[in-house]
Design brief:
Radius of gyration: 23 Å
Structural class: alpha/beta
Number of helices: 17
Bound molecules: pyridoxal-5'-phosphate
Strand order of the largest sheet: 3-10-9-8-7-4-5-6
CATH architecture of the largest domain: 3-Layer(aba) Sandwich
Helix content: 25-40%
Strand content: 5-15%
Length: 489
């Protein structure tokens, strides 16, 4: 197992092609060996050539697997020294999440609700740059209408009465299957609760598990609606700063070691866009396992890595069963469907079912069944693949157009995740006033500063590219650039 040898990989074997693409099988074998401790941090992996020769596959196939592992933070490239298992990984002795412990005690009551002065107008077409909404022009309308009509028209006696508030069985089963394939999450339909988007899932989770005054770690900057919802639910929100590796777990431990929840966006930090690094993922899981804390994983943009395969969900590493995974159809389909889901741990399903049946009404049956068909007939996978391509193209076009139109007055910060990019503005710029001017001009950016609770993430604008066709990018960029402060002097 020492450096220079090829520990843990001697016995590596691949399944038949039907077991999945070869690079994915190699990735999975090495990832498991790292998590099992067979490949400790710092271990040197075989060279691409050597492993390719050993396995009888092309060198590029091994490289693809290594690149993927590097993207997730499991390995690091060290030039001539080869590829090492990330030396910064700290694995707990009994698996990635460690051992579950008793729940933390309740704490004092939290502050009152905050305002959100910049809500977009409800029920309006997407304004250029408005974040959080998918490409409306690329939504498969005809297909959706066919599926919706199929179920709206097929109302037998069983469909006319009250339904299981946890969700339609067909949709729960479709989501469980989808998560296994698309997000690496193994769960049963009984663990899936269909909700009114992420917002409905958070409501269900807090009603089921939050006690008044519980402390909740929340990313700073972070989604203001989640921050406000937690406060309204009676939590004491503890802002925890994020850096290039995502949520700073050490800081969370220093500020509120006994917090009962952490609400995080590991695949794509909202709003800054970085991924929660593997060392941080493991540290967060260790914290939850040790204290009995709950991690709510908000995977709102999880499907939208615009270059390379999607990054795995935190839930996939949750050996101790502390992660409640939440997905939403607001981004992969439409916000108007008001559909999302929470994956709940088996011991808690009865409690969630009770809360759902008494406090959180279920969603409209025909819509649920249409979405179930959308998934099981393969349309969702195809639609997401198409949107990834379209978003990559629109993001590229908008980033280039903005940089040209804004010049030195702003810096474009565009990552390969999610549905928006950031326009960073010089320190001291009033991004809220700028957003107001933009709204008057019919544009829909969101000010970055509004997402910060105290850590400060600088001035800037969140700008969605989803509804700006590449050929319109130049014109929209110029409209926005005309509003930037130095242009007005
Ligand atoms: C961080 C974050 N989480 C979740 C959501 C989705 O919320 P919902 O499913 O309620 O539409 C959004 C929407 O913009 C978001 O920004």
């Amino acid at each position: 197992m020492g450096q220079g040898s090829e520990p843990g990989l001697d016995g590596i074997t691949l399944g038949p092609r039907q077991a999945g693409p070869i690079y994915r099988q190699i990735h999975e074998r090495i990832r498991s060996a790292i998590l099992d401790g067979h490949l400790p941090p710092g271990t040197r992996l075989p060279s691409w050539n050597s492993l390719a020769g050993q396995l009888g596959v092309a060198r590029g196939t091994v490289k693809a697997a290594y690149d993927w592992l590097a993207g997730e933070g499991y390995v690091v490239g060290r030039g001539p020294a080869g590829t090492l298992v990330n030396p910064d990984l700290r694995l707990p002795p009994d698996g990635p999440g460690g051992r579950a412990a008793e729940a933390a005690p309740p704490d004092a009551a939290g502050p009152g609700p905050e305002g959100d002065p910049l809500d977009p107008p409800w029920a309006s077409p997407a304004r250029p740059f408005q974040p959080g909404v998918p490409a409306f022009d690329a939504f498969p309308r005809k297909l959706w209408c066919r599926l919706a009509a199929r179920h709206a028209g097929r109302l037998g006696p069983a469909e006319m009465g009250y339904q299981d508030p946890a969700g339609a069985p067909a949709l729960r089963a479709a989501i469980a299957n989808y998560l296994g394939v698309a997000r690496g999450i193994v769960c049963s339909p009984a663990q899936v609760f269909v909700t009114a988007g992420f917002a409905g899932a958070l409501d269900l989770v807090t009603r089921a598990l939050l006690r008044p005054g519980d402390q909740v770690w929340f990313e700073d900057p972070g989604y203001p609606r989640t921050r406000q919802a937690l406060t309204l639910a009676g939590a004491e929100v503890v802002p925890v700063p994020v850096d290039e590796e995502g949520l700073n777990v050490e800081e969370g431990l220093a500020r509120a070691p006994d917090a009962r929840f952490a609400v995080v966006t590991p695949s794509c930090q909202a709003p800054l866009g970085m991924m929660l690094s593997l060392p941080r993922r493991l540290a967060l899981l260790r914290w939850a396992a040790r204290t009995g804390g709950w991690i709510v994983e908000d995977d709102y943009y999880g499907e939208f890595r615009l270059a390379g395969p999607p990054l795995p969900a935190l839930k996939g590493l949750d050996a101790a069963g502390r992660v409640i995974y939440v997905g939403t159809f607001s981004k992969v389909l439409l916000p108007a469907l008001r559909l999302g889901y929470a994956v709940v741990l088996s011991p808690e399903t009865a409690r969630f079912a009770q809360v759902a049946s008494r406090l959180v009404p279920g969603q409209a049956l025909p819509v649920q069944k249409a979405v179930a068909d959308f998934i099981t007939e393969g349309h969702l996978g195809r639609h997401i693949r198409r949107m990834r391509g379209l978003y990559a193209e629109r993001r590229r076009a908008l980033a280039a157009a903005l940089q040209e139109a804004c010049g030195a007055r702003a810096r474009v910060d565009a990552r390969d995740m999610g549905m928006h990019l950031l326009l960073r503005l010089p320190p001291g710029t009033d991004d809220i006033a700028l957003t107001r001017r933009a709204a008057e001009a019919g544009l829909g950016p969101v000010p970055l500063s509004l997402w910060s609770a105290g850590a400060g993430c600088g001035a800037g604008l969140m700008l969605s590219f989803t509804n700006i066709p590449a050929e319109a990018a130049g014109e929209q960029a110029r409209r926005l650039a005309a509003l930037l402060p130095s242009h007005r002097r």
